[in-house]
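Running this now, will post back.
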Amino acid sequence: MPADTALTIARWSAWAPGLESQSDWLQWLAAPCESPPQADKGPPLTEVPAMVRRRIEPLGRAALQVAYWAQEGLPTEQVQATPLVFASRWGELARSLGLLQDLAQGQPLSPTAFSHSVHNAIGALYSIQRGIRANVSAVAAGAFSAESAWLEASALIAEGAPEVLLVVFEAPLPEPYAESSLAGLRAFALRLCAAPAGGVRLSRDAALADEGQDHGQGACGLPADLGALRFLLGDAPELRQGGWRWVRS
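Update: finished.
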């Protein structure tokens, strides 16, 4: 099975401030006049013990919440055997910046804050909480990290995984980088498996690269990750953005 095999979405979930249900998202994606609102507070994440939850920043909470929702109701054995792919352009940059500021001021660094700042921390937290025994990948591939994460999931399925959980999570950048930020806090999760018929394929062709998208704006005017989500949950036959081509069979 080639790595660009057609995939289908067995289940999806998404969260952003004010967009907490599937119906909220489908309504917003049908006519996204503006990006989801910005907020500093993440979802409740009641699935995680309070002692652990209080150490997780809003971005991490959003990522973990959609992962839990996407796998809700599955047998424990299936959850623990499903490979994970977590993708974010910047990850916990705000936490990393805070650590650098503390270091510059001669303040001691928090071991917890440091361990939560690395790019694979969110996936590792979910893996620990759910007892995952399968692969856990962390992808950071610039503005189009969602596309690279899809290819990673496709490769895992090509190698024999029945299903892969793909989680994409992004947040506004802190000062002094805020001018490069697109949209507000958001996360979505996709349970992906090989499509018996039809499905979605993704390919890379530099000749298709769209001008003016180096800062993460997709072809539909949304941040690239939200543009991909809009395509995946819609019925358009094709989406081209940043040199990537999504095709619905």
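The chain has a mean pLDDT of 87. More later if anyone needs it.
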